[in-house]
Design brief:
By secondary structure, the chain is of the alpha+beta class. The chain folds into two domains: 169 residues, Galactose-binding domain-like (Jelly Rolls); 229 residues, Carbon-nitrogen hydrolase (Nitrilase/N-carbamoyl-D-aminoacid amidohydrolase). The chain is 16% helix and 36% strand. It contains nine helices and 26 strands. The strands form five sheets. Strands 1, 2, 3, 6, 8 and 11 form a six-stranded antiparallel β-sheet that branches. Strand 2 and strand 3 form a beta hairpin. Helix 3 packs parallel to helix 5 and helix 7 runs parallel beside helix 8. It is elongated, with a radius of gyration of 25 Å. It starts with 10 loop residues before the first strand and ends in a 12-residue tail after the last helix.
Length: 441
């Protein structure tokens, strides 16, 4: 629910010496807080350079303060609107959590209106863009207005930042075109090489499966973990190679030939270190990046494998892609780091594991998760498949040597009953992690 709704007691900061501040294409901005003791300092400023007013909230070094500038904007039910504003913060530890925009769809009486299915339309939380050179961040989003809504209540918040200050400006809510669909075809390969004696033989065995993914017009195909080693009786060190190296060159040619992205699990050699690595090859044939497995099981530790330390996310033609590998799925931090960096799809080469954890990672981060495993499909264990944001397996490899493809729309928001747009809420409500250190005796 809104911080301030029609049935909550509202405390206004009366700016008696100032004329009413009119929102662009909307009503008057009001300064509000839940209780008088929580009220921060509200200030309205005139920017001579930009000829526009700015709305400021300051916590004045007092914990527990929180408030918002609020105004109503008229909207047409059933239409699409784009919201945008600019935000600048000072001494705010987590702007994504403390300096938040909330949009509430209402009728003329200020009540929530029906949304999807049998639920009310829950608040929207526009996302943060990049910070410009002057320190301003665009906060924006495009939305389909519920049919019964006649106004949008816009709330510009500062919360949980005792020494902080936020300034808002250039608030706009305008009609917009329907956002285009962002269709992407995700493919998983369910295959385990058998009876091969070299890394080259193993990788060549995947070529017809990649060709099949291309025939099915896949945009992305996920292959298995350590694919140059599985089934060969060779060790991690035996098959380790530089990246870029012979395997990335081989798969790069196939990615270019079939006009798709390939995620492949390899063993990487870098000096004395050997890493369990997933590589991303693009439709141009180029190596676009790699991810070194961060969470290592004891078998890899004892085999001399070194863990990675970073969580890269890559921009592709269909959206933002992250990668993780096998044992990573047992720890929520890896998928959370990737999704926090913007990943919409996570590709996961995996030897085997608990499918409930794959489901959990997809749900708790609201991403699509593509896995490729070496587990026998007859077992109640990890699957080669694609999980959606509800943790459902959209497609699954049920036989060895098969390619499964499913089309999804990355541009379609997922609304949960009672929760609304859970993905947008994750960004605003997940904790700001503190790195703890032990006190010095």
């Amino acid at each position: 629910m809104s911080l301030i709704t029609s049935w909550l007691p509202v405390v206004m900061l009366h700016l008696s010496l100032m004329p009413p501040l009119v929102a662009a294409a909307g009503g008057e901005w009001r300064a509000v807080a839940l209780r008088p003791e929580m009220r921060p300092r509200f200030e309205r400023r005139e920017s001579a350079a930009a000829a526009e007013e700015q709305l400021s909230i300051q916590a004045e070094n007092r914990p527990g303060l929180a408030g918002a500038w609020v105004a109503e904007f008229p909207v047409g039910g059933g239409q699409h609107y784009r919201f945008s504003c600019l935000r600048k913060t000072d001494a705010v530890r987590s702007p994504r959590r403390s300096a938040v925009v909330k949009i509430i769809w209402q009728n003329a009486a200020g009540q929530l209106v029906p949304g999807r299915s049998d639920d009310l339309a829950r608040p929207e939380y526009p996302g943060d863009g990049d910070v410009d050179r002057q320190g301003w961040t665009e906060v924006s989003g495009t939305y389909h207005v519920p049919d019964a809504a006649t106004q949008a209540r816009i709330e510009l918040h500062l919360r949980w930042a005792p020494a902080g200050q936020v300034t808002w400006k250039s608030v706009r809510l305008k009609t917009a075109q329907v956002a285009p669909q962002r269709r992407v075809r995700l493919a998983t390969v369910h295959f385990r090489p058998q009876g091969k004696t070299s890394a080259a033989e193993n990788r060549a065995a995947f070529a017809p499966l990649i060709a099949e993914a291309g025939r099915q017009q896949a945009d992305l195909v996920c292959l298995g973990e350590a694919l140059t080693m599985v089934g060969t009786k060779l060790s991690y060190v035996d098959v380790a190679e530089p990246i870029p190296g012979p395997s990335t060159a081989y798969f790069g040619k196939l990615a270019r030939k079939h006009d798709l992205y390939i995620v492949a699990g390899l063993l990487e050699r870098s000096g004395a270190a050997v890493y369990n690595t997933a590589v991303l090859l693009g439709p141009s044939g180029k190596l676009l990046g790699k991810y070194r497995k961060v969470c290592l099981p004891r078998e890899e530790i004892e085999g001399g494998v070194t863990p990675g330390e970073t969580y890269p996310v890559f921009q592709t033609r269909f959206g933002k892609l992250g990668m993780m590998i096998c044992w990573d799925v047992h720890f929520p931090e890896v998928a959370r780091e990737l999704s926090a960096a913007g990943a919409e799809v996570i590709a996961m080469p995996i030897w085997g594991g608990n499918p409930a954890l794959a489901r959990a990672r997809a749900i708790e981060n609201q991403v699509f998760l593509v896995s490729s495993t070496y587990t026998d499909p007859a077992r109640d264990w990890m699957k080669s498949g694609v999980w959606d944001q509800e943790g459902r397996l959209l497609t699954v490899g049920e036989r060895w040597g098969t390619v499964k493809v499913v089309e999804v729309d990355l541009g379609q928001r997922k609304y949960w009953k009672w929760l609304g747009d859970f993905k947008a809420r994750i960004h605003r409500e997940r904790p700001a992690i503190r790195r703890h250190t032990l006190p010095v005796p």
